[in-house]
Write a structure and sequence with these properties.
By secondary structure, this protein is α+β, with helices and mostly antiparallel strands. It contains three helices and ten strands; from the N terminus they run αββββαββαββββ. A five-stranded mixed β-sheet has the order 5-1-8-9-10, with no helix packed on it. Strands 2, 3, 4, 6 and 7 form a five-stranded antiparallel β-sheet that branches. It is globular.
């Protein structure tokens, strides 16, 4: 139990040290496009989030983090706060994720987040608008990037199917 408390304390202290990188390569001055995070199934204290968490292996600000910061201290009331970011219109690795965002740590400890995450090799079109979207279910979740018209334009990342016990 003492090790568990020490681990939790260390994680809390380190969580204040989050350092996000720019989604654009250093010194990049070429064409860009925009990828936005999205959400669905908002029910007051939970929502399904679909986000970009990394670009080319570097952590960037995402809507899960932003929502936690904006809603801190509101208890079970959560208003999703979405992030959009410009990305270079070049081939790159985009890490996407889908999960249930909970308003409180207690919910997160005991709730099923239905997490799905993975890397997508993606070349956005200059000036285009995209969003991350997906589907979360207890039997398996999916996440992808789609165009502003709703067309899926990336591979679909799928979680492992959960077997009934």
């Amino acid at each position: 139990m003492k090790k568990f408390i020490t681990l939790i304390t260390a994680l809390i202290l380190l969580s204040g040290c989050v350092s996000f990188k720019s989604p654009l390569p250093e010194g990049y001055s070429g064409a860009t496009s925009t990828i936005s995070d999205s959400f669905s199934n908002h029910e007051g204290s939970t929502a399904h989030f679909y986000i970009v968490s990394k670009v080319n292996g570097l952590y960037i600000e995402d809507s899960g983090y932003k929502t936690r910061v904006v809603n801190s201290g509101r208890g079970f009331n959560m208003t999703p706060t979405m992030v959009s970011r410009d990305v270079a219109a070049i081939s790159q690795t985009i890490t996407v994720a889908g999960f249930v965002q909970f308003a409180t740590d207690g919910q997160a400890m005991f709730g099923d987040n239905m997490l799905v995450t993975g890397d997508i090799e993606f070349t956005p079109v200059a000036g285009a608008l995209y969003k991350v979207n997906g589907k979360l279910t207890k039997n398996g979740s999916e996440v992808w990037i789609e165009s502003s018209s709703g067309e899926v334009v990336s591979e679909v990342v799928k979680s492992a199917i959960k077997k009934e016990s």
